[in-house]
Amino acid sequence: MNFLQYNNWETYNIGNIKYTNYDLKEKNKKTYEKNNTLAINNPKLSHIDLYYKNNNAINITTPEMKCLFGLVDYGNSSYIINLQFTNYKTDPNMKNFLNFIQSIEINNLKHIGLNEDNNELYLSQIQMNKKYDPNLIIKVPFRYTKFEVEVKNSKGEDIYINNIPKFSKVRCDIYIDKIWKFNGNYICKWKLNKLQLL
Fold this sequence. Notes:
Layout lengths: L17 E9 L4 E4 L10 E7 L6 E4 L3 E3 L4 E2 L5 E6 L7 H21 L9 E2 L2 E2 L7 E5 L2 E2 L2 E2 L2 E3 L15 E9 L1 E5 L2 E3 L2 E8 L1
């Protein structure tokens, strides 16, 4: 039985991603109402939900990637991992995967209404570096004092996410489901669901 879902990112048609914009209706009750105003022109915008066909998220399984630093603690119960697009210049599969992630970000920008004059308001999850291959920032969901992810080692045994070695090879089930507006910026974080050490 496969641990990962093996959702093939190559089967996605990015043009078929659907969006629904929401305003915060009542802050205390955390209730929202739809608002079809172009996001960039809507000062009340709270977030945007993403849909693909019948799914309220875009779920994909990454190719084999390098987890650069293991689990990174940013404080305030905020955790990430960094997945490197290793050898993307010479590996066609990795280059295609990077292009896929970039294409989703470009599609999100268009929906929000951002252009070349203000696209810095969208906080890309791809970290570019002149010296090293780029990497993708993945949020590790953490709620009620525990991580909401599953991690297995190469033998298929459960392990704690803190025990991921630096620079280990992994494949992951990741997803995006929302674009949040925060401090005037727009951010769509890829989130970890499952990680398999290879």
